[in-house]
Batch of 3 targets.
Target 1
Amino acid sequence: MMIDSKLPTFAVKDLMEGGSKILLLHHSKSYLLSITRRGKLILTLAESSKK
């Protein structure tokens, strides 16, 4: 797959601000982006705390 060099690019370490998890909001849903101990990225739908 060819990567378009004109796409906005963000360093994960800058997004994480020293942590290993952040929340991303998309269409009123929250997604958790995590870095594993082995340095891999995992994106999961975050569970809502509302009941």
Target 2
Amino acid sequence: MQRYLIRLVLIASAFYFIFPMIHGIEFHGNFLHALGAGVVFAFLGWVIESLAIAISAILTIGTLGMAMLILVPAWLLGFWLLPALVLRYVADIMPATLSFTGWEPAIWGGLVMLVIGIATSGHVHERTRRTPSAASP
């Protein structure tokens, strides 16, 4: 829970401090607006990522794995575009708070969010990694 709060504060800080420095991104509001935008960004990011995974799974099962020939390169080349897409949706939901002049500033903002996500996602690997206990043979 503490990592999620740290991630939320970092995302809100990016909205409030970093995004106004990127040409083409305008953020209007105080830090509470940034926290609200961070919550909306986190929720929409989860929804869009879940939809992308579900569509990929359906396509893979439906084509008996042949879709992987297209999906794997698409994921490798396009995973960094998902945060930019989410940021554009946040700007559509909160137009008085966040606005973009085009896709290029959204991609730069998405890369900032991607770095924050990578830096704060260490707990996923810690939970999946299993260490043998001393009592096991």
Target 3
Amino acid sequence: MSLRRMGWLVAICISMTAFVSRPALAQNSATSSDSSQNQSQAQQIPGSPGAATVAASQPTDKTSSTNSAYTLPPDILAKAIALTRLRAILSFGGTAWSIAIFLLVLALRWPAHLRNWVEHVTQRRWLQGLLFLPLAIVFLTVVSLPLDIYGQHIDRMYGLSVQSWGSWTGDQLKGLLLSLVMLTPLLLLLFWIIRKSPRRWWLWFWLCTLPVIVFAIFISPIWIDPMFNHFSPLEKSDPQLVVQLERLAQHAGLDIPPSRMFLMRASEKVTGLNAYVTGIGASERIVVWDNTIQKLPPNEILFVVGHEMGHYVLKHIYKGLAFVALVLLVLLWLAYRSVGWLIRRYQAQWQIRDVEDWAALAVLLLVFTCVGFLFSPMENSFSRWEEHQADVYGQEAIHGLVADPQQTAQKTFVALGSVYLEAPNPNPWIEFWLYSHPSVSHRANFAAHYDPWLPGRHPRYFPK
């Protein structure tokens, strides 16, 4: 389900794992499409390149203006530039498409017509909601399909996806089912709170969503992710790698048992390389894609997992959760201030009575989409800050375990950029607005020159 995930807010409890427990080392969220990944980590919408932890990820003076650590052959470079442009167009175009759809259905009064129908069918409000909301979710999924299909077509055309259309369609249907199951009660709760507290609904709903978000993050790796991908204990498939990872964990002073290390069979759907940390509390785990093990040498895999351990040690899931809670509170307050005004202003044209009207859902989603889009640079800046911290941690963690940590980290980023076709010099504005990770150029340059064990320098996270 797309249409900017039915607005940035109402989908928050499903898509929150995409931000709080997103794939951490791989390409930026707009360097992949919303197709082959599971819907719980599917905020990787086509067209999301990013920038601005420039201060945070700027290495040293001697590397501040060079991209020499990450280059591509001319033929691959041309494809990377073309693909980066396509992704940016699709990302911004997706927002414009969503806004246009919401404005169109409001102008045609479809939400009001649907409300009239459900009120004719039953006088019980909760039954009205059980009729209105699932139909709205299905409609929004259907009108989002053209962009979703095009995104998958782009990934297949550029060799990023190997998923068949049948498998892709199955994932879309699973995502729709998941949306119906999770969003319907969430929206019922929202409208119930609006009815009970017209002036404070934004605050009460925010308080109610916090435990829902935590629960969604907790259950995602256990119940949701396996709906879309196959996971198995890493110890069974690659015991030798587990031994190396345990050694890395010990070197970092961590206690991450093999039972919390998993292999994901990503090669059935994508060609990319990745690993990520997900879950919370008892469900927290590190996941490594099989593509990563197949295509990267052991030293680079150690850096990849060291990066993930950085997220684990630096409590980025919890920090991300706190950040999202704060942003969500502001977003809900802005929605409260905007939705009522819009309904009063266009009440006659849209035939929407008030905020508690079922038809007001379209106005809520329109506002959530617009405000969520404007919040994207702030969300992505925070994400890039966390990713840079994890880069530093990963490079320091492999010091003493590999011969050349700088070269190992740099080669890893070059491999990631080459596989995902990330252009070496993305547009700074696109990078600022869309990139959830520092650009590969920044990361590779930093890695190539970051050596805190030189005289007069000090590591950030490890004793010298």
